[in-house]
Amino acid sequence: MDPSGDASGPAEPRPLSGSERREYERLRGAAAVRHGRLRHLGACVLLVLAVLLSPLAVVATWLHEEITDPHRYVQTVAPIARNPGVQSTVTNRLTERVVDRVDVPAITAHLARNLDKTGAPSVVVDGTRMLGGPLESALTNAVRRVVHKAITSEQFPVVWDAANRRAHAAVVKVLTGEGTSAVQARGNAIVLDIGTLVDNVKQRLVQAGYEKAAKIPHIDRQFTLVRTDKLDEAQGAMRLLDVVGTWLPAVTVVLAALAVWTSPAHRITLLATGIGTAVMMIALLVGLAVVRGVYLDSIPPTTLPRSPAAFIFDTLVRFLRESTRTLLVVAIVTALAAYLYGPGRGARVVRSAAARGTGAIGRGLARVGARTGGFGRWLDTHRAWTTGVVITGGALALVLWNHPTPGSVGLVLGIVVGVLALLGILAGAASDPATSGPAASGPAAGGRPGHS
């Protein structure tokens, strides 16, 4: 054997022929197409799920906060006690109930009998029986004045808020079974535990000199208020709402992010996400308007006038509407940003105009000696990176904002745009305008058209 042949190692691979290379390129292209189709399909599925879940996530979050957060609930219902229309309706309703409990005809009849027994003239007795109408009218006016004064006083909203806070806490404790309260859930019944009240009464009696009160025997201190087989279902619904209200918004955001990341066309998918979410938020607002109309039509005017009923509905759902409008604004801003980053003619015009404007201001600063030097050149070189950092910071600010509103979104958007403009100006003031020229901030500096 020739040792030199063994030392040469494995033979070099034979170069592909023309036909073999064409077949290789064809197979490689077909695999790339299949991979791209799978990514498009996966991104579409994730996108559809995220868009369809977005209104459910908004409603679930709203319900979860209203039911589990007593401060948010009281903040929701507080304006009801301060509305003049509601105050007038409550005043009339309470006045009617108080006057209905007073038997005015019986009073006038009793007065007439007493006058008749004392030998009063028949004219006086007959006139007393006719006092029913004036007496009822006077009583109604007197009661209405007292009730209206109480309801329109500064103390009534405080009492209203405190009563709603206590009622909300009791309901939540019954539905969750957590915490200590006189009203508790026991199996399929809601019971009232008066143990603390009994001990307090016994202690007060002993302190008042009734020593034998300390020997009051132990009694059953729990009274059943309501017994229903729906209590377990209500508690189960509360547990489900707690899970859904907490995790559904996060799942929706993750699905949308995965859709954008999975898609071969990131910008187009982000644009579709913004448009789809905006459409769903508009649909949710339309749905609320329809429900409002159905609700108002279902309430007889004798039960509740239309104006107070509309105010109560609008008050109860105002935070839901505000959240929906906020997400609508965020979706529109997201879609607009995705479009402006693209290769469209309108996007190029906007980017070029912005670059020329910031560049002109920067060159003007450089002319008066306010040059940014190396820092400005670094900003110009890393323009895409700094833009991403600023946009990410704005998005993080909205995420951390407690209950953002359309106004807060506009504020954050204004700050982001202002910071980007400032960075563009600083980049434009990097060098001497006599050497850089206008081309330094021309269309090329405005940012290359984003890839889909």
From TrEMBL:
- Name the UniProt key words of this record, in alphabetical order: Membrane, Transmembrane, Transmembrane helix
Q: Where is this region: Disordered?
A: 1-23, 431-452
**Where are its TM segments located?**
40-63, 240-262, 268-291, 326-342, 384-402, 409-430
Residue stretches of biased makeup (Low complexity) = 431-443
- Whether Nucleotidyltransferase counts among this entry's keywords is no
Q: Which protein are we looking at?
A: Integral membrane protein
Source organism of the structure: Streptomyces asiaticus subsp. ignotus
